[in-house]
Amino acid sequence: MDTVNGTDQASFLLTNERCRWEDDKVKKRSKNLGDAEIKQIVEVLDGCSGKLSWELLIDAIELRMYNRYTRQTLHKQEHIRHAFDLRKENLSQGERDTFRVLLPQLQIG
Q1: pTM exceeds 0.70
Q2: CA distances (Å), 87 to each of 7, 82, 84, 108, in order?
């Protein structure tokens, strides 16, 4: 009987297949934040109105960019942090609706 690391080959293949299947269920790591991604996130912030929180921003980014970033990742980026703080301040002085983001494909141009 063939063995791989002390396990028979049939068990190894089954275990390996299960791991691959479980890996497919797990979300892949999001793309690193580069200048283009940071610009898109700032545009999301510029287009929002109403209540703003990091969690709502993260959800909006996921809808627009198909990547989910953590608050910590976003907060590390000075441009994003600054845009978030400015937008939050502007919103607190004015409108208090719900968080809305215009997706580029829905904008009339």
Answers
A1: no
A2: 58, 9, 5, 23
